[in-house]
Specification:
- By secondary structure, the chain is mainly alpha-helical.
- The chain has helices at residues 9-29, 37-81, 84-99, 106-113, 117-141, 145-153, 158-196, 201-211, 214-245.
- The mean pLDDT is 83.
Length: 246
């Protein structure tokens, strides 16, 4: 039996390799540049209650931003995907918008929303909405034409086409866009907290960088990686299940 094929074995080996690389980096660079794994986990065990208010602030902003990014991306992608002409027009515009460094838009976001929760939510949603829209649009364009012709024969409304044909057929590809949008929205929310917030894990990272507190930096990094890995793994498993069913 191949042990690497057992559930969880590959993930455990990957975690061990990452910890070994982390420890090796610590031994080469020293405590001034990076905290060791043992020191980081000891700090988390001792100070996790102190971090929870920042975790809550980030989680709240990220949840709002993710809902906006997914809802907006799905709506834009499905509407443009229903029409070949609309998709051909929208795709280069969306790709061009996605190539713009979002940090360049942050002064505009601050002017519109000010410093606080609305700015973090807006900046996070900006990062996630376009990838979700692009994947959703391409997934809608890939729906078998026979299904769309059947919908036209049955005189289904656009809403019925989306609910009965597009979503079931395109859901695996849409979920791929949601996974990417999830990651980018989290990045955008953290960046928003780093440059325009008084709370949250991004704010904590920024202040810790200024103080050269490597323990807090690595502790926050571990929390973010653990959260992103758990959710991404769950979404990937769901996506594989949908592809097998289809």
């Amino acid at each position: 039996m191949n042990l690497l094929k057992l559930p969880g074995v590959s993930a455990a080996l990957l975690v061990l390799l990452l910890l070994a690389a982390w420890q090796a980096t610590f031994m080469l660079a020293g405590a001034v540049a990076i905290a060791s794994p043992s020191a980081t986990f000891a700090y988390l065990a001792e100070h996790l209650p102190d971090l929870l208010p920042h975790v809550w602030a980030t989680g709240q902003a990220f949840l709002y931003a993710l809902v906006i990014a997914i809802a907006g991306g799905l709506l834009l992608g499905l509407v443009t995907g229903l029409s070949a002409t609309a998709a051909e027009t929208a795709e280069p515009l969306l790709l061009a918008a996605n190539s713009i460094p979002k940090i360049a838009l942050y002064p505009v976001v601050l002017l519109l929303f000010g410093i606080g929760l609305p700015a973090k939510v807006a900046f996070g949603a900006i990062h996630g909405v376009i990838p979700v829209a692009i994947f959703t649009m391409n997934a809608a364009r890939g729906v078998p034409p026979v299904l769309l012709k059947t919908a036209a024969v049955l005189h289904l409304s656009p809403a019925d086409r989306i609910r009965s044909i597009l979503l079931p057929s395109a859901l695996p590809e849409v979920l791929t866009g949601v996974r990417l949008g999830f990651s980018l929205t989290l990045i955008g929310t953290i960046l928003g907290e780093m440059f325009g917030s008084q709370s949250g894990l991004g704010y904590l990272l920024m202040t810790s960088i200024g103080l050269q507190n490597t323990q807090i930096i690595m502790a926050v990094t571990v929390l973010l990686i653990a959260f992103a890995a758990i959710v991404s793994t769950a979404l990937l498993a769901w996506e594989r299940h949908l592809r097998l069913r289809r």
